Amino acid sequence: MAASATPEGxxxxxxxxxxxxxxxxxxxxxxxxxxxxxAGNRIESIGAGKAPEGLENVVRRVDGTGHLVTPGxxxxxxxxxxxxxxxxxxxxxxxxxxxxxxxTWARIDEDMVRAAAQGSLxxxxxxxxxxxxxxxxxxxxxxxxxxxxxxxxAREMGVRFTLARGSMDRSEKDGGLPPDFAVETLEGxxxxxxxxxxxxxxxxxxxxxxVAVAPxxxxxxxxxxxxxxxxLARRLGVRLxxxxxxxxxxxxxxxxxxxxxxxxxFASTGWLGEDVWMAHCVHxxxxxxxxxxxxxxxxxxxxSSNARLAAxxxxxxxxxxxGVPVGLGVDGTASNESGELHTELRNAxxxxxxxxxxxAALNAxxxxxxxxxxxxxxxxxxxxxxxLEAGKLADLVLWKIDGIGHSSIADPVTAIVFGAAAPxxxxxxxxxxxxxxxxxxxxxxxxxxxxxxxxxxxxxRITAES
Length: 466
Fold this sequence. Notes:
Helices cover 35% and strands 21% of the residues. The protein has helices at residues 94-105, 110-126, 146-157, 186-200, 223-236, 248-258, 262-268, 286-295, 303-308, 316-322, 342-352, 364-378, 412-418, 445-465, and strands spanning 13-22, 30-39, 42-48, 58-63, 67-71, 73-74, 129-136, 160-167, 209-215, 240-244, 276-280, 298-301, 326-328, 396-400, 424-429, 432-436, 439-440. Strands 1, 2, 3, 4, 5, 14, 15, 16 and 17 form a nine-stranded mixed beta sheet that branches. Strands 6-7-8-9 form a four-stranded parallel beta sheet. The longest helix has 21 residues, at 445-465. It is globular and about 70 Å long.
């Protein structure tokens, strides 16, 4: 590594070379040994062999021998607050799990949410996530500025971030699952969501923070909130996110309450379109998949959570074949206690091979694409991130694959997908280092471990006393 002063106004360059590269571009271009040149916050050039001679303003050179460079991973579904309720209700299906945990979740406050966001973001960033998202939908009365706490944690960590500002207005008294004191009113939810978008959403090319409109799910949200939420998102020019078709119980609920299956219900409320992505989508028939493909509606596939809650196996190969945009999601860490996205590459491949397509379901490169370019598509940012191409934002990861866990696997992409979770030597977001040698650069990991433990214990005490 070499450092030098940069003339005022000139873009600083970082040069990475002697590494294998998987670009995940439209042609799946790969280099057995190549280079990436970053200038400022953009990828300037990429190719085989050594970096071009005579580059000016090079502030850092990285020898990538024994490494694979990929686009940074993109997480498309999460619930950060659940970091402080991990390890609970471990043998429940979705509805029973929600009933067991809502009384605890309904007592979160700003300090708890900030700590949980730090823990969630930290685990993802250490594992190669450069763009994260959080679907936060629990806003108890008097709990403080929860959205601001989450966005502040992402800014401190240095990752690119989308807050899906969620909401619930269907409580137990209306036939929903959340306690009555854990939901907002229709008017309050819409007003708070609009305020969050106007305060925090950045629509620019290199935005570090964006906001989506995200009522929680059909069984915790009124039809009017779904309809008006979609109208609000389109008036403000932001994306829409919710849970969909996660379990057979949800499908039964929709038929009983609305007289429609989940996809038809979403269509009736304005919730299909290129600006929409849904979490899970496990129980989709051919007609549902066709509707998603026709409208460009995206899917956040969460294989570990789907398995943890016994929800089923999503038809990801059929979705991809039909042209549905699909990315990967961690989901909340109360249903995926590891909280890591890079392990979802492997789990997506393995779990889908248990389905109808067997060994032909997914291969290593398709899994990597789900976690990178697919995620960028789902978040509406495929022209900016998700592949390594000149002009795109410099969000990339350098994976170490010459250690004991990977050195005997000849193919680098197979190594990081089929093999053990690969160590991250360097992660760049917007051209800035966020992780070095497996450690977070901008926050104290040990301090986060302590504060998340303390906040988890405080939440448990408050719940027990209530």
